[in-house]
TrEMBL record, chain A:
Signal peptide: none annotated. It comes from the Bacteria. It holds the Pfam family XdhC_C. This is XdhC family protein. Residues 77-218 form the XdhC Rossmann domain.
Automatic annotation (TrEMBL), chain B:
InterPro entries: MoCofactor_Util/Proc, XdhC_CoxI. It comes from the Bacteria. Residues 15-82 form the XdhC- CoxI domain. The lineage of its organism: Bacteria, Pseudomonadati, Pseudomonadota, Alphaproteobacteria, Hyphomicrobiales. This is XdhC family protein. Pfam families: XdhC_CoxI. It comes from Bradyrhizobium denitrificans.
Amino acid sequence: MQLSTLAELNAERAARRPAILVTDIASGEQRLVKAADIAADPLRNELATHLRMGKSGMVEAQGKRLFLNVYAPTAKLVIVGAVHISQALAPIAKSLGYDVTVVDPRTAFASPERFPDVPLIAEWPDVALPPLNVDHYTAFVALTHDPKIDDPALLHAFSRDCFYIGALGSRKTHAKRGDRLRAQGASDADIARIHAPIGLAIGAVSPSEIAVSIMAEITATLRLPAKEKEQAA
Amino acid sequence: MLNRDEDILKAAEDWRTSGHGVALATVVETWGSAPRPVGSNLVINDDGTFLGSVSGGCVEGAVVTEALDVISSGQPKMLEFGVADETAWNVGLSCGGTIRVFVEKVG
């Protein structure tokens, strides 16, 4: 690998932008394809599939055996609300490899006893969220049921292009939430991005089951192509 | 996307920039049960210092030795380790899988 290629790859990784290193196994020839350049690449189908699955592997193309090494950022999960569901959700997300952070200004909820081994920020969203560098590789869930906390958190998530945004609440609650968020400048497209009621419809009842349905929905959003995603939702 | 690695690629860049010979080893194929997924990296410098892993520690010694060759020759190499291979008994992929590792010099 050329040092310049390695430096370029490291710069993309540091910026949390995915890139794929394409290596011709026979000759050792290499090129780095940045995520933004995939659409124009001759290998776009293979590159897009591998990136979506976060999976490296060999492909045969143009009579060559090419190795695609996918370097994608670690996915983050930001949980707003240190509630019972979050106590189940945080360890599930961690086991799936997510960097998990829990935010809740209510210190009675955001206590280390309730959330061992999870980074906890007992601050309001306007203080807690900006330093977290919420980005496209972030799943964002608002679970407090309290508009004073959930609403500003969701507005922050809209501005950061999170790949998944979910919020707890019935259809009725969600309709009211939509009105409030629009009054604060959110667009209809922003509101439409919220998965609510949150989670796949698996008949979840207990907090742990709801956590499973949320994590399943996040996984489907991350991994399924757009068309199948609609069918799952 | 979901695997956190210590930043070994940054270490490789820093080693090279400071004048070390550096090689990069990458798991490119696996069969059966393999301890580290395809795409895993091991970086090696000309002191024999290495970071990362391509197996659970079973074949790193052999990969480092080959990497030192690659650093001096500049020619990439494909290495294969598995129980079907006579030499694998020596370096020992005890999990029973087979892995193929591409080793290249960082120029």
